[in-house]
Each structure stands twice: as C-alpha cells, then as structure tokens.
Amino acid sequence: MDINDQWYKYAGPGGWNDPDMLEVGNGRMSYVEYRTHFSLWAISKAPLLIGCDITNMTKETFEILSNKEVIEINQDKLGEQAHKIKITNLTTSNNAESKVSEGFLKLAECNGKKEQKWYIKEEGYISNNDEDFCIERITGLKKGDQLFSVKCADKNEQKWIYSKEEKTIKSKDGNKCLGLYNKVDLFNPLMGTKDCNDKESLKWEYNEEEKTLISNGKCLCSAATPEQTEVWAGGLSDGNKVILLLNRASVSADVEIKWNELGLSVSKAYLRDLWQHKYLGGFNDGYKINLASHESQLLKVYEEDPETPVTDTDSSDESDTVTPSDTDEKEKENDSENKTVILSLTVVSLVLLLAFIGFVVFYMLQKRKKVEDKNPNIDNENLDSNLIRESKSSTTA
Known about the structure:
By secondary structure, the chain is of the alpha+beta class. The protein has 6 helices and 23 strands. α2 runs parallel beside α3, α2 (31-43) runs parallel beside α4 and α5 (324-374) packs across α6. The radius of gyration is 35 Å and the shape is elongated.
C-alpha cells in the first residue's frame, strides 16, 4: 500500500490503482488486521476482489467483506483515492524500535537497523538478529522461487551454504543462488533465487562486525513493522471526507488528527464510525484515539452535524423542519404506500382475470345451448366438435 499510495493522484473514474486481491479470510492475519486491510483497499478505491474460499468463509470474514458502509466508501462516485496525509514516528520511550516480522526480503540502503542484521549458523540457517526469523526459499510460485523471512523451522528450504571465497549464498542442494527476484519492484527490489552464475547480482559479502549481507552496495533487509502511526484521508461526492487512523507499530499508540491538517475550515467536526455503524458526535479542534498494534479506525467526517434538524431557510414554519427520524418515518410511509398500491393492482388484475374467465365460460355455454336447440338429437361428442369448429372459424374471422 505504500507503493500504491504514491500513485493516488492518477486514480479516478476510468482508471484505478490495483494493489491486488484481498487477503481477508486467507489466514496469517488477525481479525483486527483483516479490517485494516479491507479499510485500506476501500479508501484507496481499489477493486474489491475476494481472494478467500467463499465456500468455507467464516462469519467474521463475511462480516468484513459485506460491510455496506465501508463498501459505499469504495464505490463513492467521486472516485478520489485516499492517501497518507500524516505520519508520526514513535519514540523509543514508547518501546517503538522496529520489530522484525514475517514477510518479503528486499535490498535497502544500509542503516544499521536490526532488520538488516543476519547470523549465519553452522546448521545452515541464516537468522535475523537472533529473533527466530530465518530466510526461507518458497518454491512452486508462478514467477519463480522467492525468499521470505519466516519463523525458523527444521526444513531444507531454510538451509543455505555461504561461500566467502565465491561470495555466494547457495541453497542446500547447491542448484540455486540467492539474488534478486525475477520481477523486480521499482521501489522495493524483492529477493529470490536463480540458477547460479558469475553475475554480480548473485554476489554477497558478509560483514562479520556489522552482521550484514551486502550485494551491490545494499544490505539484505527482512520485513519489519514500521513503528509509526498514519492518517489517510480522501474526499467524497457528498462534500464530506473519509479518514483512516492507522497504527502500524508493534505496540499500542495514540493516533491524532487536527481538523486544520484535514483542510477543514471549521473548529468542530462530526464523526461516524463506519465499522461500528455508530455516530460518535462532534469534536473540537481534532480527534485522538488509542489503537492496538495494526488496528485502525475508519471514520466519515462531517463539517455540519448530520444529526441536527435541517430547516428550510425560506420559511419560519416549524412544520418544515426535517430531522433524520422524520426522514425515516417518511420512508416507512412511502414503503407502506407502495405496498398498498402494489396490492391494489394485484387484486384488480385478479378480478379482471376472473371476469374474463367467467365471460368465456358463459359464451361457450350459450353457444352450446344454441347448437343443442338446432340439433336436439346430436350426441355430446359431435356437439363438442361443432363448438370447437365454430370457435376456430370465429377466431379466423
């Protein structure tokens, strides 16, 4: 999403940034992280393509994927992709040093952080900062083998052979060498394995003192949880705004937004929680909330109180005042009226149908009586044949 965010200006009706399918329901994330994931896709106006097995979908997964208010934000006709407007880096006093986590491996500028420190074990494991995360080769992918930082386990996919002389890191079977992934991301070059050769992209130097693996002047970097909070914001077609308060840190943290940072001209704004389906009321100057790690809050922001009665300025008659409850009652009345009209039309249609059937029966009985009067000795079979023949001739005429 960091990459997707860089292109927000180019998204809109006719062309959307697509960060790929949803992972909600596929495991490896908590319920809180699933909601954050879906919220980010929704405010980014990304295509909401379900990526889980819908035949085994849990109640929680269905609840997330079917949230009407969140989906409405995604489908808002203005089509404005929300983007990051505020990033707050947490201080070390809040225990906010970067925390290594599972995820992709990449090359990055060397900075001495612990996500760039590696320990080459005698058993063949290459672990990150003794935090039980090891380099694992994931095979069978369509685009080639790829490398991930995952929990250390006794498996061959996590065992490597480092050669200081050849400056290579080979898989245990010796057939593949660690290097750039086949499809290189322009912003975050990801790591994979390739057939071993003498190319510089497959050469590595291990700095014993710094505990870093270096290729082409850059350090191998494991996935890490950014110790920061973010505020994402975007406009809506009704003139209001949507904001996402997000805690990307590994610890709970306060996330705060001031109304002037959002570009509002008012000192008091009103909020609705789109996941809780709940009106939160008005807040002066700004809003702050404490969120757990990877938790977020998706809010719709109003400059005017949506719960305040809307009065017709051209009339002082209090009867013209409309409140949300009045609107709901009016909608109920309209629904009731519509149902009454439909019922009435149905009854009228049935009455007309019965009248037509009665007319046809009466007509046929009268015809039968006339034929019997002309031919008193005719049997029933011949009588019915004559009626059918006359009926056809009448229809033709």
